[in-house]
Amino acid sequence: MTNDALQTSTIENQQAVCPIIKVEHLGKTFGSHVVLKDIDFEVDRGDVTCIIGSSGSGKSTLLRCINLFETPDSGRVLFHGEDIVHTKNPDKYRQKVGMVFQSFNLFNNYSVLKNCTIGLTTVLHIGKEEARARAMKYLSFVGMDGYIKARPKQLSGGQKQRVAIARALAMEPEVILFDEPTSALDPEMVGEVLSVMRTMAESGLTMLVVTHEMGFARDVANKVVFMDGGVIVEEGAPEEIFNHPKEERTKAFLAGGNK
Amino acid sequence: MFFERIGSILQNYYPHILRGVGYTMLVALVGTLVGLVIGLLIGVFRTIPTPRNKALKVCKKIADGILSAYVEIFRCTPMMVQAMVIFWGFALLNDGRTLDVTFSALVIVSINTGAYMAEIVRGGIISIDNGQFEGAHAIGMSHTKTMLYVVIPQALRNILPSVSNEFVINIKDTSVLNVIGFMELFFQAKDIVRSNYLTFETYLLVAAIYFVLTYSITLLLRFVEKKMDGKKDYQVQGSQNMDAESYAIEEGGRRHDQ
Fold this sequence. Notes:
The complex is a heterodimer.
Chain A: H1 4-10, E1 21-30, E2 33-43, E3 48-52, H2 59-66, E4 74-79, E5 82-83, H3 90-96, E6 97-100, H4 112-122, H5 128-141, H6 157-170, E7 175-179, H7 187-202, E8 207-210, H8 214-220, E9 223-228, E10 231-236, H9 238-243, H10 248-258
Parallel strand pairs in A: 3-8, 3-9, 6-7, 7-8
Antiparallel strand pairs in A: 1-2, 1-4, 4-5, 9-10
Helix pairs in contact in A: 4-5, 4-6, 5-6, 6-7
Chain B: H1 2-47, H2 54-75, H3 79-93, H4 101-126, H5 130-138, H6 143-173, H7 185-196, H8 199-229, H9 244-257
Helix pairs in contact in B: 1-4, 1-6, 1-7, 1-8, 2-4, 3-4, 4-6, 5-6, 6-8, 7-8
């Protein structure tokens, strides 16, 4: 499989301004339940950051705050240095920040191909032919170019997720957020999706991945963030986090995972 | 004997019957379609996220209130009474000049159906998984585009059985419009009976005609539903760069080693 396709187009429009995303003192509560407390971290261009931690630790909420699906109660989310929490145009911002969901969220009323072109034609106003060519490029990258006429309900979970990744890639965003992309899949399908994600990482895409796949975090990420109870307990290179965790909580979490 | 009488009704009065069928179907069809459009507009308007701006928020609240009043008033009163109130109300306000009967019939059935459709559409939109909205927002679609390209098409498919139900009800319920002198099928039947005195035979024939009309519409819309669901199978084309099996071996092996 070639990654040239990805490198030429997606990386091109990434500006050299670093970091792409900077989160400052982010806080979020649902009612009286504090989900995120004073979160600080940043995503640089080309980073593959994995956020790990037990369920309910606030990982997904953090991701959803970055994508403005949730409005943070305090703190800032900077995109190329500009605070986007109170932006007038979240749609414009989301064009540049892709998202892949645990439950795929493919459009049930469209074929595989149309799932990937609909954003290009209606949001980016790209012509039909060009949109189709671009969608085909990314569908073949994820190995789903043979299924362009299929409807989402006719696909397996792994195939759906690969199409969802192609849909996100086709928008050629600057960063792609993954919200537990493999949690709804059986082990074989987990393999096919992780393999695609690994190739994306190798091609230099900026990725922010919430995951329970410790193997993926260890092998592919260049930065691992461990969250617990709404705070970042520890962050660093995967080698540090997995082999020499400093915090007791991190050790306990990783030990539990290896049982 | 009996069938002869039925045959003679058909023979002598077929222009009346055809005209009645024509008026009935015209009002049922237009009423259902316009009602669906009204329902879609209200349903979509109600799902607009509450604006942050205070003035807009108040406007939205007021508009929501007016729409609720419309829906509830028309759902909670009989169409026959609505027809009388609107038809004679207009006449009262215009010095006794009445509206064209056919036009009144179209308006009454449309706004009555619109009230029901608003609730049907609301249900249809609620039934769409939140993930569809998020999937659309995630690629930068605005609320309008999300509704237009993703939610409404799916909602329409989901509500089609209810819409066809409304259509069937409308075909039958146009008969109440005889109170304002609208010449639909029931009105024609009354007219026929007045001259031939074959009350039972005439109404039995009309009942059969109503049944044929409603049942064929039911079958037609079921066919449309099937069409909308698309083909059950699909063709895999060309060669795949990847397939699930090669992955499973490559990744699975590595994963179990850990």
